[in-house]
Amino acid sequence: MTTVNGLRPAWRHLVYFLYNVILIVVALILVPYYLIKGVRFGKTRRGIRERFGWYDKNKLAKLDGKQVFWVHAVSVGETRAAIPLIKVLRKTYPDAGILISNVTETGHAIASEIKEIDACIYFPFDLSWVVAWSLKKIKPAVVIIVETEIWPNFVRHTKRRGTKLIMVNGRISDRSFPRYLRFRGIFSLLLKQFDAFCMQSIQDADRIKVLGAPSAKVSVSRNLKFDMQIDLSAIPSVEQIKSLYRLSPDLLIWVAGSTHAGEEEQLVTVYRQLLAQFNNLVLVLVPRHPQRTRLVADMLSKQGTPYRLRSQLKAGDTELQSGEVLLVDTIGEIMPLYKVADVVFVGGSFVPVGGHNVLEAALLKKPVLFGPYMHNFKEISQLILKSCGGWKVENAKGLAERMETLLQHESLRESVGLSGFGLIDRNAGATAETIAVIDRILKDGDVPV
Prior knowledge:
Rossmann fold, 2 domains, seven-stranded parallel β-sheet
């Protein structure tokens, strides 16, 4: 009997059948979870409907009759990485429809603000009939998956329609690669259905080839995150931002962005140590997931550390004092906060989450610190270190030492920040290379409309 990609047809059908059964079981758990979150945030009811392929009547109206680009970006980091690509897609294909999908609420909130898109939805659950129904409604000509978000049913049904399927900003982390290798047969089956892979680095390209991607379809287009097209002119002035957040002009401001459970306690401990030497220092904590704010607030209360919630600040409030913590319980304010920071710590790196994007701080010429767990941003973090745009700290003790050095020397903070900004300037260009691949794929054959 003939085999395809190492799997006999009967086995392939069995694999998809078992996969769908597992997803049904998982959905029985996840749907109540989303409904409970909906009660807390007031938004998930729509998210649940969209994840089952049910859209509001006018949700997809702007896509009717157009060549549709469907960009999938799972969360905040992927969404921000996709923004420069989406902007160029709009200029290159002005008559096309552009849809972006997300999995997380935070990613969805960022995506909804992108002016160049025509629709923003939650990504459908990867149940076979849900995916088929969603694709039938949206009718994409091209599906662009940001980084490595591979869903078997979505890939299979996308190609059944004859839709072009492209991975951009692709990466295979050190932690993921061994896991993927265990299922190489399945990955090979899926990867061979892609039309192109635009990978971040040579290592990422080599790894996806090992997993089964055809070599002729793989190229190194570098990292889209270096092409961040944030409109810095749209960010208010330092004076305006400090007034908005009730931060005195005389304060030294330490912003800890995208923090996770297990990190805030360490950061607050270091903060309290630093206060003995710096009586004009304020810590701004920005949890990656705002729904954790209550837990962080409880921790601060138990430690006897005074704090204020961002959502409760208003004009006329007294300015924050050294020793207080500004706890940010809102979404989409990280860039203004980084702009007024003297030092930035990027979270997800003191715990094995894998880190977050350090380039946002570098774009604003700020010195950036991060912990040892940066496997999701391995290349970027190594480049930041090599360019002297920031430092890796192994633990709270190392963080306290680096913070002390930076807070003591303004000229050092400025030089480190400028080095990080120079790194971005030198590595820009991934968007143009990615668009060139997309253009080539579209010209290779007809696509559905």
